[in-house]
């Protein structure tokens, strides 16, 4: 497979939820792609649709109340939205895997770690139990769990939080998927362990050539690990750029707000009186969103046009896209 090959191509994805207060668009016309060996970060504040985007790619949106109502999710040339449930189960954990914030939600508490990885391997590979167990131990070693033979015989509660997350990573990568989705994989861990787990994910991803979607609130993590970023707001992709371009020249006012509220930017900034900047207002309710830019009520630059009409994602050069009528004016180094 050539290095530049696209492993995932998501086009115009739309996922809705039917709730008591009406239908809302949790993911609204979102497109992006991930290449082999590349890390794409998805950032944005709580509730903007990052996790639902990931769950849509995995076809794990709970239906009801949710449903994917439009678009395509093409993994290695196959549109996952066309597959029946059995075909999708054969791909999940095999060509595409996901790790979550809290490993205990995915690990079975009454099953030994080694057995869980063994089962995951045997679900997709025609191997004996013994071979699959050896693979499980090999994977535990790969994720740097000490004494992997012994740890494989232990139950999740016998492992520390960091080790459980390593075990999850081992399970997710056991079948060498083309794409790994990591949804806030380190948020539940101590700060020192967070850095180790992130470094491990990135190292293994490079070693195995896996495409990675990293969902995070933390722009510092993005700067360290990703090559490209998409910024979501109220279910929409409002900006997409390489990490360098996004940090040097954020074009959407929401992205600029995110940057300004990032402690590292302040620590490295030149102004002595720099303060943590709050993005004013609340994320809008995703029901009855106005036709225009949802960020308009929070954007100091809002013009009447933004409230009436959604600005299209425009290419500002070098594949830097931003959905803002005034992106050309707003772009300036922070
Ligand atoms: N099962 C569900 N039923 C109804 N609404 C849901 C469900 N799951 C998610 N949502 C809603 O979809 C929207 C997007 O949620 P999502 O979890 O993708 O946000 P997020 O950006 O990942 O936030 P966070 O960073 O807090 O995880 C939110 O308004 C959320 O309340």
Automatic annotation (TrEMBL):
The keyword ATP-binding applies. One of its GO terms (cellular component) is plasma membrane. The lineage of its organism: Bacteria, Pseudomonadati, Pseudomonadota, Alphaproteobacteria, Hyphomicrobiales. It comes from Bradyrhizobium sediminis. One of its GO terms (biological process) is transmembrane transport. Keywords: ATP-binding, Cell membrane, Membrane, Nucleotide-binding, Transport. It is found in: Cell inner membrane. Residues 8-259 form the ABC transporter domain. GO terms for molecular function: ATP binding; ATP hydrolysis activity. Belongs to the ABC transporter superfamily. Involved in beta-(1-->2)glucan export. Transmembrane domains (TMD) form a pore in the inner membrane and the ATP-binding domain (NBD) is responsible for energy generation. InterPro entries: AAA+_ATPase, ABC_Ni/Peptide_Import, ABC_transporter-like_ATP-bd, ABC_transporter-like_CS, Oligopep_ABC_C, P-loop_NTPase. NCBIfam families: oligo_HPY. This is ABC transporter ATP-binding protein. It is a peripheral membrane protein. CDD domains: ABC_NikE_OppD_transporters.
């Amino acid at each position: 497979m050539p290095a530049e090959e696209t492993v995932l191509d998501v086009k115009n994805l739309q996922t809705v939820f039917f709730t008591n207060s009406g239908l809302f668009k949790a993911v609204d016309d979102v497109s992006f792609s991930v290449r082999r060996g590349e890390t794409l970060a998805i950032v944005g504040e709580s509730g903007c649709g990052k996790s639902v985007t990931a769950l849509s790619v995995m076809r794990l949106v709970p239906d009801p109340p949710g449903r994917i109502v439009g678009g395509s999710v093409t993994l290695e040339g196959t549109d996952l939205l066309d597959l029946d449930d059995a075909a999708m189960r054969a791909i999940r954990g095999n060509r595409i895997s996901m790790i979550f914030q809290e490993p205990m939600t995915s690990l079975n508490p009454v099953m030994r770690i080694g057995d869980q990885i063994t089962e995951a391997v045997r679900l997709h590979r025609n191997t004996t139990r013994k071979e699959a167990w050896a693979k499980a131990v090999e994977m535990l070693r790969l994720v740097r769990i000490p004494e992997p033979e012994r740890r494989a015989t232990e139950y999740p509660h016998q492992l520390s939080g960091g080790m459980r997350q390593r075990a999850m990573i081992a399970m997710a990568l056991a079948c060498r998927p083309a794409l790994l989705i990591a949804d806030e994989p380190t948020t539940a861990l101590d700060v020192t362990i967070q850095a180790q787990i992130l470094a491990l994910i990135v190292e293994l991803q490079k070693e195995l050539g896996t495409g990675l979607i990293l969902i995070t609130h933390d722009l510092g993590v993005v700067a360290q690990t990703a090559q490209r970023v998409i910024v979501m707001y109220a279910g929409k992709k409002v900006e997409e750029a390489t990490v360098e371009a996004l940090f040097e020249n954020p074009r959407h006012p929401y992205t600029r707000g995110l940057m300004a509220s990032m402690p590292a930017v302040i620590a490295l900034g030149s102004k002595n009186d720099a303060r943590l900047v709050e993005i004013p207002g609340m994320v809008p309710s995703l029901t009855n969103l106005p036709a225009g830019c949802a960020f308009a009520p929070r954007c100091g630059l809002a013009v009447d046009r933004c409230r009436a009409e959604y600005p299209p994602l425009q290419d500002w050069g070098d594949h830097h896209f931003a959905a803002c009528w005034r992106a050309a004016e707003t772009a300036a180094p922070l």
